[in-house]
Amino acid sequence: QALPVGNPAEPSLLIDGTMWEGASGDPCDPCSTWCDAISIRAGYYGDYVFDRVLKVDVNKTITGMGAVPTGAAAANYKTPTDRPNIAYGKHLQDAEWFTNAAFLALNIWDRFDIFCTLGASNGYFKASSAAFNLVGLIGVKGSSIAADQLPNVGITQGIVEFYTDTTFSWSVGARGALWECGCATLGAEFQYAQSNPKIEMLNVVSSPAQFVVHKPRGYKGTAFPLPLTAGTDQATDTKSATIKYHEWQVGLALSYRLNMLVPYIGVNWSRATFDADAIRIAQPKLAAAVLNLTTWNPTLLGEATALDTSNKNW
């Protein structure tokens, strides 16, 4: 569920290369040279994470929301209040991350590798709508929505998922053998990885709203309420939904050589962050109401203030 832990014996496994014959350098040999000490290796690097659980890192309270609706009467929600953050303590129960890259390593004394990877990564994330802070505005007083009305409900009964595009990724690290005894090798490693993919598709399924957004754009650093044009083709000052991925890892592994096989077992400590800059993405809607509807999605979003019983919309 993290960056792969490499084999601690890997720096000393391939002394001879396909292009030239290597030499096993001995730092205690007075006749050895740096040509014997250094070699370069290249290969393929693949990292596939299928089921990772991520904790949502947010404050306990959320600011800028309207008051919680009460009773049966409509009301105005123009006064911001501090409310418990429904995303606090939640987890993304399904986080997947896939990386394919080229691997290049500088080997020293057949004991240490300093390496980097250059390639591409993409991901998939899914969790309850509460983890993504899905909010809405329901029960507004009047025949129209003023620009200063604040969202008043947090929608917890739903699912939010999104896919990222495939974008450039890189990592750097080091791996080395710390102790050798016969065929056994104990080693350690460190690795840092980074990528900045954009969200390719956002899918929201909940009781009051269902919608899909391709290449979503949103507002960063913008307080509630969002502009009335949010979610329409006329929206301005929006930015692409970009995920900033950072991960570091330290690992410790023990290997044992059995003829041509070198099995190993290892443990690691890692921390991965996926930061979206608290972007706020609005549900897609029409710039002007059509048939008293402001969106074609199956949702509770319209502008009718009375029920038309003489006509039917299917």
UniProtKB/TrEMBL annotation:
Cellular component per GO, a single term: pore complex
Family note: Belongs to the chlamydial porin (CP) (TC 1.B.2) family.
Membrane topology: Multi-pass membrane protein
Subcellular localization(s) per the UniProt record: Cell outer membrane
Gene Ontology MF terms in the entry: porin activity; structural molecule activity
Protein purpose: In elementary bodies (EBs, the infectious stage, which is able to survive outside the host cell) provides the structural integrity of the outer envelope through disulfide cross-links with the small cysteine-rich protein and the large cysteine-rich periplasmic protein. It has been described in publications as the Sarkosyl-insoluble COMC (Chlamydia outer membrane complex), and serves as the functional equivalent of peptidoglycan.
Name this protein carries in UniProt: Major outer membrane porin
GO BP field: monoatomic ion transport
Gene that encodes it: ompA
Keyword Membrane: yes
Organism this protein belongs to: Chlamydia abortus (Chlamydophila abortus)
Assembly with partners or alone: Part of a disulfide cross-linked outer membrane complex (COMC) composed of the major outer membrane porin (MOMP), the small cysteine-rich protein (OmcA) and the large cysteine-rich periplasmic protein (OmcB).
Pfam families linked to this entry: Chlam_OMP (PF01308)
Main location: membrane
Keyword Ion transport found: yes
Keyword terms, alphabetized: Cell outer membrane, Ion transport, Membrane, Porin, Transmembrane, Transmembrane beta strand, Transport
